[in-house]
# Entry
Amino acid sequence: MTVKKPWILLIFAITCLFCGFGLYWRAASQKTLRLARTSMATSSPKRIISLAPNITEILFELGLGEKIVAVSSDSDYPAEAAEKKKVGTFWQPNTEAVIAAKPDLVITLWFEQQKAVADSLRRLGYQVLLLRIEKIQELLTAIEKIGEATGCHQGADELVGKITGRMNNLRLKLDATDKIKVLWVVQSEPLRVAGRNTFVNELIELAGGENAVGPTIQQYPLIGTEQLISCEAEVIIQSAMGTSSITEQQRAAEAFWSKRPNLAAVKNNRIYVVDSDMVLRLGPRLPQGVEMIASCLYPDIFKQKPAAVHPVTPKGVLWRNLQFFGILPVHRISNGVQLTR
# Structure
C-alpha cells in the first residue's frame, strides 16, 4: 500500500492540473468570444447600399436609415428612401455607381443580374451580403442575416418577433372561420392566376383562405373559361397596376368581371383590387399585407373594406414584382432586361 500511494498522489495532481487548465481554457474562450462580438459591433458597416426595395425597408425598420448611402431606384418606402442616392434599377444595378458610393456593405438578392454585380464587387474586395427572399421563412432568415451583418442582432430579433407575433395573432383571429376559395388574378387578358406553389398562395392561406386553383404545372398558369367556372372562386383578388388610383382600378375590375355574372364572386360583389407593393413585396409590411387580404375575405371580422396605402402604383413596379416571382417571362435585349408586357 505504501508503494502505491505516490502514484495515487501523482494521478490526483495531474487530474487537478487538467481540470484547472480546462477551466482556464473555457474562461479564455468566453473572453475571446466577447472580444469578437465587441469587435464586430465596433466595426459594423457605416455605409450601406441596398439593391432591392424590400431590403431597403428592412434596413429602415432596423433603424439603419442614416447608414444607407444609396438604394435601387425603385426603393420608394419609407418616404426617406426616395431621397437616397440611386445606383441603378432593381433589374439593372449600376456597378460603377455602387463603387462610387464607397460602401462598406452592399446587400443584394440572389437572382442573376444582382448576383453578377455581387460577384464583381466581391472580386474587388467589397463586403457583399447575398440574400434569397422568395418565401416568408426566407424573409425572416434574411432579417436575421442583415442583423448579423450590421451589428443589429437585437433589432433583427425584435423585428422577426414583431412579424411572427402579428401573424400568429391573425391566425388565432381567423382560426374558427371557414376557408374561403380565392382566385388571385395577376393578369386579366389573357387570364393568368397564382397557383399553389407560390408566395401568393402563402399569403392566401395566412389570410385564412384557400387557393381556388388546384395543383398546376406552372406556378402562374393561364386558365380558360371551363377552369374559371369549375374553380368556384368565392373571392377574386387582383393586384393594382398602372398609374390610375386603386379606386379607379376597382371600378375597372368590377366592369371586367361583370361579363361573367354566373361566378359566385361576381354575384356577391366580392372583387377586390389591392395595393401591389403591400402584398407582393416581401418585407417588414408583410403582416399589413396579409391583414389587407384577410379583410377582403372576412369583412365582418375586420369591419372595413381594405384601403390602399399607396393610392398610385407605378406600372413598372408591379410588373417587376410579378416577374421576380416567376409570373412573367423576361426577354433579353441589347441594353439589359425587358419585361414581357
User: Anything to note?
Assistant: Confidence is low (pLDDT under 50) at residues 16-42, 307-341.
